[in-house]
C-alpha cells in the first residue's frame, strides 16, 4: 500500500497510524548521518509488518552466491548491506502488558521527519489491553556534528494511574531479510550492563568487522534505580515506576558506536563508552543544537526553494535531505549506496550512480573535498580495477572498475552486468572531467586523476577491436545504460564514451606533462606508459570508432540491429503490463524495442555541446516515446533534455516523477528502501534542467526557465567554493554571489559581471520558456 | 589425474590401484540398468577421495536456486539428480581393524568393467596394519532382466589366520556433493534388521518420493548366525568368523528397490522385501545368466565391431554400453540425463541431447518402442510446454519445451539458456520426423506427434517478428547450439530449424488430415486450430524468413554481426588457454570468434539434402577451424560431415575424440561423471559418418568408407524392426538382412535387393574413400 503523507515545505508528515503503510514509512522517515543510519523502526516493540534496518557505513557481509550456474570470473560473494545491532530499542510495559502498536490501538498518531533540522519525531496515545491509556512523545536524531552518536528521547505521560516499565536496550540478535537461508551474520562477543549503562560488542561472521555500542541513560520524572537486564545477545536496563495520571517520565538514551573501521579492535569498548559518556555529559539540548547547526550549514549551500507548488518543494528537499544524510564526504573509504541507510536491496555500496548522478549534485552543492573524496575512493581502488580487468583478459595496466563494490572488488554476478556493463568506466573518467571543469583543480589530475584515466584508456584501447567488415573499431558484447538490452554490439553510448575517454586521457597527459613534469615522469614510470605509442593508438581508435547511425531517420542507433525490432512505442504496452520488468520474462524485454532508461539520450546529455538543437530534438522525439523509465535514473536525464529543448511541460512532468518517486511510491517498492542515488537526478532536473546551469572551465552558465505552476524558485550552488544563489521568478533571474571578488556569469548567452554583495538581475525568465539554451554558450 | 585404463575389445581394465585416479575410475566403471545406477564406489569403506553416487531414475530433488539475482520467469528450483541411499556397502574388519584401501596397501589390484556381460569386478590383496593379508574378489551387477534388483558378491580369502567381520548395510545417511549448504535431501523413515535381512525406507525432503531398499544376505564358507546392527539411518547385519589361512568366505548381497514412482507408498516395504527374497530364491547364478542374456540381446542389434584398432573398438563399445545402461525405453516417464547414473552434474534429466543425439542412436539400434517412448515423454509434457511459453508471453497454444527438465517443468535458470536457447523446440520436432522417416510409423503423427508439432509451430510463428528494416521475418535474442554466443539476432541454425518446423507442421497436418480424418478433426477442435489461417501464416513466415549470408565468403553467417569479430582461428589460441571455458571470462568468450560446438554446421548436418558438396565443404572449411569443440556434442557432428566430404583423416581424428572423450579424459572432468548423451554421437560418427548410413522413407542408404587404420568394421541396425548387419572391409561392403522379405538398400547411390539370409556384397569400400556421398541419394 502506498504511503500517504501530507505535503509540507520542510517536513514529511504522517497523520494516523496505518499498519499497511508502515514499512513504506519506515523507508521514507529514515535517518542517517553519513556514517550510520536506520529505517524509521519504532523504539518500542512492534509485532506487525516491519523491515528492521540499522546500518553502519562500510560494514558489510560477503555472502555466498555460488549456488547453481556459474561463470568464470564471477566473484565468490555478493557484498550485502548489513543489518546491524539495533540500538534504538526501548521496550515499554504498562501494568505488565507490552506496548505494541500492532495490538494496542493508537490515536493522535503523528510522525514527522523534520528535514530542516534532521530529526524524526513521533507521538501517539495508546490504549492498553486493560483500557489504560498513555501518551508517548519520541524524538531521535543521528548527530551530524558527532557521527558516532545517536540520541533517542522517549517521553511517556500516564493518562491513567499506571505502573510503567521501560527497558532501553541494544540488541545483537538481528538478521538480514535477504539472507539466503535465514542465517545470522553476527556473533555477539560481549554484553555488559550496569545501572543506566550498557555495552554490546558484535563481530561479523565473515571479515571480522567489530562494532561496539555503548549506551548511557537519563531518566526524568522518576527517581528509581535502574536494574540491569543483560543477556548473551543484548544489553538492557530496566526502569520501573508507578505513575499517577498526568505524570510524565522522560527517558533519554545516548548511544555511541565505535567500529574496527576507525579504531583498533581492543579499544572499541573504551572508545564507545567514552563517547557515550561524553554525549550524556554534553546533554540532549546541546547535542541537538550542534546537530541543527550542521544541517543549517548544509542547507545554506544546497537548498532549493520552490514557491507556489508545495509538492514540488517537498519533493526536492526530501531528495537533498536524504543525499546529505547518506554521504557527508569526510571519509574517502565510504560511498553512496543506491538505498543509502534505508534498506538492504542492491547490497554493495558503489554503482556508477555515484559518478553519473551524485557527483553532479555534490560538485555543485558541497565543498570540493566531498567530490574529491568520492573520486579518491576510485583512485584507491585502481589496483583492484586493474586486477579485475586482468580476470577478464586485459593486460598492460588496463583497468575495469567494478559494477558494484564495497571495497574495490567486484561483487556482482550477472555476467551481462558484471562483465559487460563497462560504460561505468566512462562515467568514472567523466566524473574526473566534471570535477575539474567545476573546480579548475587541475592539480587533481596530477595527484590522482591521470593514473585512473590511463588505466581506463588502456581498457578501452584493448576492449575495442577492429572489424574488417566495417573498417572501424567496434565494441562487441556490451550492456549499455539501457539494461533492457544485453550483450549487444556497438552500443552507441558505450562507443561514444569510450572514444571520449581515449581523447580525454590524452588531454590529461598533456596537462600534467605541461604543469607537473616531475610528477608526470613519475606516473609514466610507474604505469610503464609508452607515452608516444599508447597515446597515438588511443587517438587512432577514437578517430576510427564506429557509431551506428541511420541516415533515413537521422538518428544514432542505440546499437547494431536496433532497427530489426518491432516498431512499437511505450504507449502500445497494455497498462496492466507495466512496469514490464514485473510482468515480462527477460527475453521478451530484451527483444522488445522498449528502453529501460536513457541510453543514447544519456550520451547526448553528457556531450550536448557536440550537437545542435535539431539533432538533440530529433533523438529526444525518437527515443523518449520508446522509453519506459523503469530505472529511477531515467526521468531526470530526460527532464534535463526536455528543458533544454524548451519543452517545459514534459520537463515538469518528468521532474515530478523523479523527485516524488519515493514520496508517491510510483514503483510500489518504497518499503524496500529509498532510491537515494537517483535523488541527485531530481536536483539535476531543476538546476540543470529548469535553471539551465552548466559550468565549463569554472565559469557558470545559466538559462533559467520557469514552469507555469511555479511563482518562483531559487537554488544555491557553490562556485569554486563560493556561494551563489539564483532566484528565478516569472519576470527574471536574480543572482547573488558571495565570493571574494567579481566573477563572470553567463545568463541566456550573455556574460554578466557578478559583484559580491550586489544582486545581479536579468529580466525575462518566463519569456525565455521554450527558447532553447544556446549551444554556443556550451562550446 | 587422468585415468589410465588398458585397451581391450570388450572390457575396461584398470591394473593397480591409483588413488589419484579413483574418482575418474568411479565414473568410467559405473553400472546402470535404466532404472537405477551407480558410480563404481567400493563396497568396503574408503576414506580417500571419492564421489559417492547411487541414483534412481526419476527420483530428483527440486533444490532452491533463488539466491542473489533473479529474473522474471525463472523457475524456483533446479532439479538435482539425487544421490540415494547406498545399497552396495559392506564394511570389512580384520582382527578389529577396518579394511580401507586409503590406509591398507593393496597389491594385485584389478578392476574390470565387462561390457559384454554388464558386470563390474574387482580383486585385490590387502595388507592390514598388523601385517595380515587378505584377498578380495568382488563382483556386482544391476540386473537388466529385473531392474529392481542389484547383486553384490564379495569373497574374502584369508592369506593369514585372521578374524573377519563383514557388515553389509544399506545407508540412508547420504548427501549430494552439489548441495548448496551441505544440507541433507533425505529423511530416513524406517530401518529394520533381522538376521541376514534388512530394510530401509527413505523419503526425499521435498516432493515426498519414497524409496525402500530390502537386502537378503547369503554366506558361504562360514556357518555363523548374523547379528543385526541397525541404526536410525542404516540397516546392517554383521557376520564374524575366524578364518584359517587359505579359507574363503563369500557373501552375496541381494538388494531390491521399490519406489513410489512404481508402487503405492504403503506397499513399498512389502514390494521390496518380496523382490529381494525372490532374488535370493532365484540365486546368484540364475540371476546373472538372465542379466547376461539381456545384454546379449542388446548387443545383437547395436554392436559395432572394429578390427585392427583396439582403442577405437573399445571406445565405441564403451559408448554403446553406457547408453544402454542409461536408458532401456520401457518407461515413457524416464529420459536420458547428460551424465546418466554416473554423476550429479547438470541435474535434470532431459536436454535437447535426447532428441538431437540419442534418438538417432536408439531409432536405429533399438526396437521402435524405445524411441516412441522418448517421443511420448515430450507429448506428455505438452501442456507444461504451453504453460512455459505462456510465462514468456506467448499464447494461443504455442509451446516452448524446457531446456532442462525432470517432469516437464523448466528447471534451469540462466536466462540466456532457459529463455533463449529455443532451438531445442526444433530438435523435438525434428526427432518426430526422424522417427517417422526411419519407421514409416505415420500413425504416430496422428496419435501424438501432430499436437506437439502444432504447439511448436505456433511458438515459432509468434517468436519470429517482422523486421521493417530487412523486409523479412527475424528471430531476435536467441542462443544457438553454439552457447559461446548469447542473445544474438538471427542465429542461422535457429532460423533454419524454425522455418523447417513451420513447413513440417504443415506437412504433418496434411498427412493426418488425409489418413486419419476423424482424429484430425478431433485435434483441430482440441487445439482450436485455425486450419487455413494458421497454416497460411506458417507458410508465409517460413517463406520470408531471414537467413544471414555473406556473398563474398559464400557462407551462411552464424548470426547477425558475425563478421565484426576478430579474424582469428582456434589455432591462434595459446595452448595454455584451452579449453577457453576454463580460462576466459564469459564476456571474452562471447565476443571471441570461437565456436563451442557445431552450430551452422549442425544445420547443414540436419538438412544436408538441401545443399551440394561444394556448399557444405565451403562451410566446413570456414567454421571448423573456428570451432573449439568444448561441448561433447560437437566433434561427432563434424566427424559425420568430414566423412561426408570424404576427409577420412579429419573424420577419424574427430571420431576418436568423441568416442574416447571419457576413457582418455580429454577435458579433465571425467571424475564428475561420463558424457552419456554425447556417446550417441560416437555411434553417429561411425555409422552415419564412415558408414554413410541414412534412412529416408524407411529406405536404407549406405556409403561406407574405411580409414587406413582399420582392417574391417561392422555395425548392426534395426531397419523397421529387422536386423541388418553391415560389414565393411577395404575391399567392399557386405550386408546381411534378417527381415521377413527382401528390401531395397541403396549402396553408393545404387539400389540393391537385399534378400533375407543372403549376403549382399558391394565391392570397393576403400576405393570409395574421399568420394563424396552423393547428394542425389539423399534427396
Explain what the structure shows:
Two copies of one chain form a homodimer. In chain A, a hairpin with a 2-residue loop joins strand 28 (722-729) and strand 29. The two termini of chain A are 48 Å apart. In chain A, the strands form eight sheets. Chain A has a nine-stranded antiparallel β-sheet. Chain A has a five-stranded antiparallel β-sheet with strand order 8-7-13-18-17, with no helix packed on it. A five-stranded antiparallel β-sheet of chain A has the order 20-27-28-29-32. Chain A is 33% helix and 24% strand. Chain A is of the alpha+beta class. The first copy, chain A, contains 22 helices and 32 strands. At the A-B interface, strand 21, helix 14 and helix 15 of A face strand 21, helix 14 and helix 15 of B.
SSE blueprint:
The structure is a homodimer of 779-residue chains.
Chain A: E1 11-15, H1 22-28, E2 31-32, E3 36-38, E4 54-56, E5 60-64, E6 77-81, E7 90-94, E8 97-98, E9 106-114, E10 119-127, E11 133-142, E12 149-158, E13 162-171, E14 186-194, E15 197-204, E16 210-220, E17 227-228, E18 234-243, E19 248-259, H2 268-282, H3 284-302, E20 304-307, H4 310-326, H5 353-365, H6 368-380, H7 382-391, H8 415-418, H9 423-439, H10 443-463, E21 465-467, E22 472-474, H11 492-515, H12 517-526, H13 531-543, E23 549-550, E24 555-556, H14 580-583, H15 586-591, H16 600-606, H17 613-623, H18 634-644, H19 648-659, H20 676-690, E25 694-696, E26 699-702, E27 712-719, E28 722-729, E29 732-737, E30 743-747, E31 750-754, E32 759-763, H21 765-768, H22 775-778
Parallel strand pairs in A: 26-30
Antiparallel strand pairs in A: 1-9, 2-3, 3-4, 5-6, 7-8, 7-13, 9-10, 10-11, 11-12, 12-19, 13-18, 14-15, 15-16, 16-19, 17-18, 20-27, 21-22, 23-24, 25-26, 27-28, 28-29, 29-32, 30-31
